[in-house]
Design a protein that fits this description.
This protein is α/β, with parallel strands linked by helices. It contains 20 helices and 19 strands. The chain has a domain of 212 residues: Rossmann fold, CATH 3.40.50. Bound molecules: GDP-alpha-D-glucose.
Length: 512
């Protein structure tokens, strides 16, 4: 069965919709998102924003937690339109009408969710196969994790056809279709071939784009590129990915003309504008949830539940258990730190929240075992009767509790080996209402382009340097913390979620 406990682009654990709406600040959304945008929007993503399940013979609706679905749901509520996604809930089929549509959110009915159905075989080969064992490791430059089988590709194409057919049913002339991520690279081409109308097609690619040298080994790489070249607009988080994409087109698609300076590709009658527009996090909402947690005296509840005394410094890492996130490297650096700085034994506790993810794939199961065993070794080596160096949990926290934990944490360790952006780094910064946290950030995360100047920058594989940076973070003078965090918060506020949506919609409006 599909894994439903992972995050952001693809994935998500589930919250009751009521809980989500309680978590949202009272903003006049239509003034925040898409100001002046009056075209019908069709969002297309692998994961759906609402899922119907059967619970004790009763139908329940839950929501994914994570960047993409949680971020775009308020946009769709404000603008209306249709969201096309895979119906993976066991009661999803009962909830839809004859056209596979259901109005959401259940309590407000602001837009239409159009579900498409995938068989178990399709999910195994399209989602766990081509998307997550070919494109994901290739785009992250981790070619040793690539596993390719021909059936992966057949089903990837089949699933993209199913998404494209659903879009074709819904779309009319002046509409904007906004595809998301690496699951749907062929859908733009399939839609443009199917429909007689001419909607604007736009795509946001949430993960990195590799160099031509790496991309060269991607099975069906040319089809992936030409699929995307049917979009009018293609967005990446950072300019490095945009540049790599243009270089890959140059190297792989001779029929395409690439204007590197303008970021435009002309191919078979379509001009694709390629932009770098980094996503953001809902800063107002995070701040208001942190304030609520403070009022309720709940920001220290994680610490209290795990018996960490108030005077112990707390560092935190929050990730899906993914081999791109650099979790073993982080544990190596912490071990080195406690080795070299014994005075910090008993005085620093590290919390690693690691959500289980894609556990049908061997590389993910191996990673989880490796992380668990490293945590055990370090805890046995340094732990004492009243101090556990590392608290590792796979439990999902409701967003308010997660933001409360960020608020309580003195330091965040964000150490991916490769990452499109990294929302956790931005969420941690947004939650530092008193400007008193320290962000340690890998120079390989897209977020480093925005935050690298005021975060403590690390190479996640340079264990000694990483360990001494942890030392610097935990002992940083409050004035330096405040100066750095103030700058970081300004960056994150300037590039928040609504700024991302508005910039992307504006870029659509500005297309020739
Ligand atoms: C992909 C790209 C890009 C985690 N644990 C809990 C929880 N989370 C939420 C975090 C954050 C999200 O999951 C993870 O987002 P990331 O950006 O860190 O990572 P990916 O899942 O790999 O996302 C990435 C992103 O797409 C967006 O474009 O930044 O580079 O790989 O939002 O808060 N949320 C809750 N409880 C948890 O226990 N509520």
């Amino acid at each position: 069965m599909p894994d439903s406990r992972v995050h952001a682009d693809t994935d998500g654990d589930r919250l009751e919709p009521q809980e989500r709406s309680q978590q949202r600040t009272e903003t006049p959304l239509d003034e925040v998102f898409g100001d002046g945008f009056d075209r019908q929007l069709i969002v297309v993503s692998n994961r759906q924003p609402y899922r119907h399940t059967v619970d004790d013979d009763e139908t329940a609706v839950d929501c994914p937690v994570g960047g993409l679905t949680a971020g775009l749901d308020p946009v769709m509520q404000a603008l209306g339109g249709t969201w096309v996604a895979w119906g993976d809930g066991d009661a999803d089929k009962q909830a839809v009408d004859d056209e596979d549509c259901v109005s959401v959110p259940p309590e407000q009915e602001a837009y239409t969710l159009r579900r498409i159905w995938l068989s178990e075989e399709q999910v195994d080969n399209y989602y766990y196969g081509f998307a997550n064992q070919v494109l994901w490791p290739t785009c992250h430059g981790m070619l040793t994790n690539v596993r390719y089988e021909h059936r992966f590709w057949q089903h990837y194409r089949g699933a993209n056809e199913a998404f494209a057919a659903a879009v074709a049913d819904q779309v009319s002339d002046d509409d904007v279709v906004w595809f998301h991520d690496y699951h749907l690279a062929l859908a733009p081409k399939l839609v443009s071939r199917t429909v007689s109308t001419s909607p604007t097609l736009a795509h946001f690619w949430h993960i990195p784009w590799p160099s031509p040298e790496t991309f060269r080994s991607c099975p069906h790489g040319r089809s992936i590129l030409t699929g995307l070249l049917h979009n009018d607009l293609l967005g990446f988080h950072v300019s490095r990915d945009r540049r790599n994409f243009l270089d890959c087109v140059d190297a792989t698609v001779p029929a395409a003309t690439v204007d590197h300076e303008r970021g435009e590709v002309r191919y078979r009658g379509t001009t694709t504008t390629v932009e770098a527009i980094p996503m953001g996090v809902p800063v107002d909402e995070i701040e208001s949830l942190v304030r609520e947690q403070r009022r309720a005296g709940a920001t220290t509840s994680f610490r209290e539940a795990h018996d960490v005394p108030p005077d112990v410094t707390l560092a935190v890492g929050v990730d899906r258990l993914d081999y791109t996130k650099g979790i073993p490297e982080r544990l190596d650096a912490l071990e080195r730190f406690w080795e070299q700085r014994p005075e910090w034994r008993g005085d620093l506790t590290f919390v690693q929240k690691g959500s289980e993810s894609r556990s049908q794939i061997p590389a993910y199961r191996d990673l989880q075992r490796r992380v668990e065993s490293r945590v055990e070794t370090i805890n046995e080596r340094f732990g004492t009767a009243d101090w556990q160096p590392i608290i590792f949990t796979t439990d999902e926290l409701p967003r308010a509790d997660l933001y409360g934990l960020y608020d309580d944490a003195d330091v965040a360790l964000v150490s991916p080996l490769c990452d499109g952006l990294n929302l956790v780094a931005m969420e941690y910064v947004a939650a530092q209402l008193d400007d008193d946290g320290v962000l340690v950030l890998s120079d390989r995360a897209g977020a480093h382009d925005l935050l690298g100047q005021h975060a403590l920058s690390i190479d996640p594989t340079a264990t000694d340097d990483f360990a001494s940076t942890i030392g610097r973070a935990v002992s940083m003078h409050p004035t330096e913390r405040a100066v750095r965090m103030h700058e970081l918060r300004q960056q994150v506020a300037e590039h928040d979620l609504s700024a991302w949506v508005n910039e992307f919609l504006l870029a659509i409006d500005e297309l020739a």
